[in-house]
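With this grant's support, we have settled on a layout for protein records. One resulting record is reproduced below.
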Amino acid sequence: MWRIVLFGALASALGGSAALAQETVKIGMVLPLTGGQASVGKQIQAAAKLYMEKNGPTVAGKKLHLMIRDDATSPDNSKRLAQELIVKDKVGVIVSGLTPSALAIGPLSTQSKTANVVVVSGTSRVINPGEPYMVRTSFTLGQQAQVIAEWAAKNGSRKVVIIQSDWAPGNEASAVFTDQFKNAGGEVADTIKVPFQNPDFSPFLERARGLNPDSLFVFVPAGQAGTFARQFSERGLDKAGIKLIGTGDVTDDDDLPGMGDAILGAVTAGMYSALHDSPLNKQYVADFKKTYGFRPNFISVGGWDGMHLIYEALKKTGGKTDGDELVGAMKGMRWESPRGPLSIDAQTRDIVQNIYIRRVERVGGELYNVEFATVEAVKDPLKK
């Protein structure tokens, strides 16, 4: 009799554990927390944890468990870690970071039919018909490059030199800017490509200065902007009257506090400034600074909105993590973000958002991107 009772109790306990396990939704996040792009992972991790703290760890009756893995800025690591998360840990959602990481993880999420939220990559081709389980909450460089090209052409720029980091997002930003600027009657005197890893911008800036442009269009990834701004000043391009324009990366909120006066007056097109004037953003920045002690940047809101998209999609599916159902729930979703109104294009699964023209100014003794114009509901120009 005691064996029957014990067996029954054990079966009940195991059944309860299995039921409990079924009530947990695992979210696997692959980020660069060490290596050259560690600041990117730091911002995403902070924003994701802050979102869960503010919105609770339970959705649709399911407990959410965030599993963060460091790929050390290596796409080979990204692929291995994502495979472990999908196969071994059985995550319900995978979250991708930088472009090389997202490109490495995409085929895995497609093969396993796992919803894949891209929270950092700005490369258009990452979200494509061949990877139907990928949805973006970050941005594309094309969105920003198109807007700043239009603004520059309308505001006196006639001859531009491009300096770009030599990797996929930079190539796309340059291509979109060039097409848009030339169509508006401008001249692109040269496109100068800089090695992505450990760049020294000095010789490239000297080359650009020798071409006598009125403006310099720049794309460098987050984390390298401070070095670029310092060398831009050291080489005297600011004193030569060359206007600095670019995508939002070049005046990243993570780098701005330490850039110095050389960056004052730089005009960029970006999707987020920590100074964005909305009640939601003011609360976001206050909570972020209080919790982590540093300023949120444009990378951070990709993580915040990625978590929001996952939460809201799970609400729609009743907590089900079937890839087709989750992605279906994400398509066409609209919400208000700290950066402004957002939506997910139902056809492309890419983000639609406002792009702001900003100028670097001192506000309260600190450098900020001050928004002075808005282009609403911008789609990726490479998917029109």
Notes: The chain has eleven helices and 15 strands. Residues 1-22 have pLDDT under 50 and may be disordered.
